[in-house]
Design brief:
This protein has one domain. The chain is 65% helix and 8% strand. A three-stranded mixed beta sheet has the order 2-1-3. Helix 3 runs parallel beside helix 9 and helix 8 runs antiparallel to helix 9. The termini are far apart.
Length: 262
């Protein structure tokens, strides 16, 4: 059974999503157009990828170490830089947007509001982890536990956790996806495939390259470029999937800011 568009709020979306904010008795509409958001994100990713490729030329073509900070800022394999913050911000946006969808579903007493809440929590954790790199701390203990040596297929041993977690998530969310409108379900699945193929699939290849040739090798740089690009593309597609879903469900949120009386 597919979800029916919700009627939460008095005003419907037009051809896009809108967030209505009521401030001191006046109403301002912030209109979110999913297609335009996707185009903007793809442009940003393209620019970051181009700058990253320039940093690789500087590093491997001219033996630059930091390139006066340029390489540090745009290298996709460097942490705490612009690509990392963008990825974390996109995850945080998804988490916040799913909280808003959760509010709608809970208000309408649909059976899916807990699914949205849990998914929002997962993305919030992922956003923090993208900055803190907590999953990296599991690599050495898992390598020791399973006797994995550098250069093996599971050099980046944290992916073992993903092999356990992802099938469980797929089983739990199967009914959730089946209840969705087919367009939204397909967008969710497509974005998930792109994202996971990068952060888990190509991550495995990156681990092998790291073990065989070191993190300073061109082979490792190429594999991480593909990995991080797929991650960003998957997130951009998921942002589009979420906003498109909200638009099709005609979700409207109203935020009221009022001065305390008396």
């Amino acid at each position: 059974m597919q979800e029916q568009p919700s009627s939460f709020g008095a005003q419907e979306f037009l051809s896009s999503g809108s967030v209505n904010a009521t401030v001191q008795g006046t109403q301002s509409d912030i209109r979110i157009i999913p297609a335009k958001i996707l185009k903007a994100l793809l442009l940003i990713i393209f620019v970051i990828l181009a700058l990253h490729l320039v940093s690789l030329v500087m590093k491997f073509g001219f033996d630059a170490v930091t390139g006066y900070g340029f390489i540090t800022l745009f290298d996709l394999n460097t942490e705490a830089n612009i690509p990392t913050y963008l990825s974390s911000a996109l995850m945080a946006f998804c988490a916040i947007f799913m909280v808003l969808i959760y509010v709608n579903h809970k208000e309408l007493a649909t059976p899916w509001y807990r699914y949205w809440a849990f998914l929002a929590l997962i993305f919030a954790i992922m956003s923090v982890d993208e900055i803190a790199q907590l999953h990296e701390r599991s690599i050495e203990p898992l390598k020791h536990l399973f006797g994995i040596i550098s250069g093996d297929l599971l050099t980046n041993a944290w992916v073992i956790l993903a092999f356990v977690f992802l099938p469980l998530m797929a089983l739990v969310y199967l009914r959730f996806l089946m209840a969705m409108e087919s367009r939204s379900a397909l967008l969710f699945i497509a974005s998930g495939i792109v994202f996971v193929s990068g952060v888990v699939g190509v991550e495995i290849i990156s681990g092998v390259m790291k073990g065989l040739y070191s993190t300073a090798s061109l082979a490792f740089a190429i594999s991480t470029t593909v990995e991080e690009t797929l991650e960003l593309l998957g997130l951009a597609l998921f942002v589009y999937a979420l906003t498109d879903y909200a638009a099709r469900q005609r979700n409207v949120w109203r935020f009221s800011l009022r001065e305390r009386s008396g």
